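Quick start: what a row looks like.
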Amino acid sequence: LKLQFLYFIVGPRGKVHINKMVRIDLLCLGTGKASTHIYHGEPSTGFVLIQDGEPVLLMGAGLGIVRSCMHYCKQVPDTLYISHNHSDNAGELPLLLSVEAGKGRRKKVIAEPEVLQRILQHRLAEYHESIGLSNRKLSDLADFSESPEGVSTPITSCLSIVPYRSQHSERCFGFVLYYMDHQILGWSSDSGFEMNYYRQLATAPVLILDARQTGSYDHAGFAEVTDFELQLAQESDVQGEQRVALYVCAYGTQAEMPTTPQALRIGQTLVLLDDHQPSMPVVPAQTPTTDYSVPVNQQPVTPRGGIPHNTPQSYAQPHQPHASKQRARSPGPASLASPTSTRRGYGNDHAQQRSTDIKNLLSNVCVQPQQSLH
């Protein structure tokens, strides 16, 4: 029996609202670059978002991510977010959707409209040939959902994302994650150093950035991120605010993990929100393991409070209630940029055309019925 712990809030006019106590975790599935899985066997960069012990969002389906997700979570979440159409973020998507749909577990794929169109037209092109062999359409393979830039897209009843475009040669979107109307995570996906983009993401208390030893247009360098972290820390100190907890990923194999800036490692968990426990100090990073197939025996970092737990297996355990609760700072989605941002946005006519193109793809392309295609 899974217990749901409740707390009460007195709202406007004395009305009492009943809310579930929530814990949000982020599990790192991989830190690889584009070639890491092919040459070294470690997974591409990817994450699983976990709400109260249940995996709710897979962030990326790059090479090696499905195996890592099954290893730690024993399942693939029902919802996937694809930031861009490179192999290190979408390489396993076709087979993943085919196998899961064949087992009756049809997934939901969320992406920015033009990214979604590229996925349907190019990434899933291997299924277009089946149009003459089946009466089913591509939309039967998964639920494909648009997530426009600057617009809130719900993930669960209390979690949502607002995508923003990164600096990358392939059209790519990271996002800010919200719990209700509170920002709790900024994630860059693949991106070079771009100050305005970083500032949008850094409104959240936890920030995860793509970084490499040597920076380029497509990927920030460690030195650039370190300087940005120092700038954020100085601003927070002057304003008397808590510092943003910044981590890097997508740096390559575990052996390539930097000491500065602080890097995530495979199997590591960040506690983004914990309504059940009192605030705790940040847990220092520990020595990584180079064998990601072996469960990592470590405590997750707790950047904003909450009691860490030890392994992904404990996700199935119910949390214990506690009187104290945590709330993140910062305004809600209403204060964010509009979906047609002048920096990188498109007009309404362009957006409507993309939606029409996606609908045409979903209605014209078919896949095999009721079973995996591979």
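That is the whole record. DSSP finds eight helices and 18 strands in the chain. Residues 1-18, 279-298, 304-347, 366-374 have pLDDT under 50 and may be disordered.
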